[in-house]
């Protein structure tokens, strides 16, 4: 990061503070012009925990019954950001009883008393937009039983944040943060007395962002499926709020929604959850279905990649492969080194997964979750396919951009003789080892068997020379690699058939068998599954194929098949090996 980075961060913070205090000193609104219907959906279980004083934010559990969260010392910046975003209002409103309402009211008016004059870590445009959306959605829930003085403080708080957003929304980063800030700004203009003139400003700005942030294929720069879902959700909220206020959303917002919806359908597994890539999770329960229904679009993606992901679907099985370069620059702050990693789901049960984002469990887990070994991909010589750069201050937290990214990631989806196939490769290891990684995946038409092949090969003379130098450095012992297949925690796996296979039992009763061609050593090792809403990572298992690249070309074949298809998959592997041997020009004809 350049020397200007810390200066820009400090300048942004100072400007936020200046405009927050100016906005807080202005006269507050007297009430609502109109109020959009509440659309945010929270967790009933989490709401009950919060009402009882058990605060779980960003992987930290703080037990503080009878205390306001603003009186506590935040364990880290991520905890503070989540707290100041007011997302917990959705959870408390989901409970909706007197105890939850009292907790929500105490927290909201406690925030106003402590930070309402423009101080504190919550005065950033993206957090202000997030707060306004929740406060407007749950205003009826919050204002019930309040005194006129308390109601006046509530409207004063909303007005201050709306004015702050009118001056500072441009300071947000591109993508989700800016769209969230503008949606909050739009809500304020449509709902709060005295802000009506700002509604068109917010709508026009949001329309411009739809054109610049959502590409022609319905993707965003971060390539995070869950973040794309949040963008679609915000745009449908904005569109509905404009419609309810008898205003036109404009063609740009509707067109962006129409582009995003089919892309999200392509990134959804057979069980209804999103593929977990680039810092995103499966999505809140029901959020994806609700967003797609609200979009009004029934389109599906044409054949090809969706936001850089290849999807194979047959029978009850879905496979999603990361088949494009990872995000770069500012868009890579939460991105993962997951090129050519895949996930596979059978029916309602995930089988092969990625570990996921560890951001909710602290800095060490966040970094570990971004590395290639945390994905169902090939890792060469302990290197990730992209590396983390030096940390820099991004907002209130330290973040690293991805560097040394794969530049060339060709991918092609086609029909195999008995199914669907995707072939892809990346050059992420060319600069360090001279080797290109290529992966082929073939899913049968009935979705009951998957055949895979991973190759490492040196193409150009310069690549071969670099490979030779790396081999000399290890005394010709070969460059170690591992191909990992992380399994979902609910998959029961054990080594079978005398150590030549791994059998995996799903909760549905299905049995899947993993086999390989014997060119690598197979082991069943511990793994983790990282997901939001838990106190600690869940234990899981991973299948690991370990080998060494000794020549300019190294190949490993493997297969996944339901139990009754195992014999056929093994015969196919043997047949392929025999075919290769019979066509090898270097084979002795005698």
Q: How far apart, in Å, are the first and last alpha carbons?
A: 62 Å
- Identify low-pLDDT runs: 565-571, 581-590
Instruction: Tell me how many strands there are.
Output: 22
Q: For the residues shown, what is the average pLDDT?
A: 88
Question: Mind summarizing the main beta sheet?
Answer: 8 strands, antiparallel
Helix content: 25-40%
Multimerization state: single chain
Q: Beta-strand level of the residues, as a percent range?
A: 15-25%
Give the overall form: elongated
Secondary structure tally, helices:
17
Rg (C-alpha, Å): 26 Å
Class by alpha and beta content: alpha+beta
List descriptors.
590 residues; alpha+beta; eight-stranded antiparallel β-sheet; 17 helices; disordered C terminus
3D architecture notes:
The protein is an alpha+beta fold and 590 residues long. It is 38% helix and 22% strand. It has helices at 4-24, 44-51, 77-84, 88-95, 98-115, 125-137, 139-143, 148-168, 176-191, 196-213, 225-244, 251-266, 287-295, 363-370, 430-433, 461-473, 566-583; strands spanning 54-57, 60-63, 309-314, 317-322, 342-346, 349-353, 378-380, 387-388, 392-394, 397-399, 402-403, 411-416, 419-426, 436-444, 449-457, 479-487, 492-496, 501-505, 511-516, 521-529, 538-549, 553-562. The strands form five sheets. Strands 3, 4, 5, 6, 7, 16, 20 and 21 form an eight-stranded antiparallel beta sheet that branches. α1 (4-24) runs antiparallel to α8. The longest helix is centred in the first third of the chain and has 21 residues, at 4-24. Residues 565-571 and 581-590 have low confidence and may be disordered.
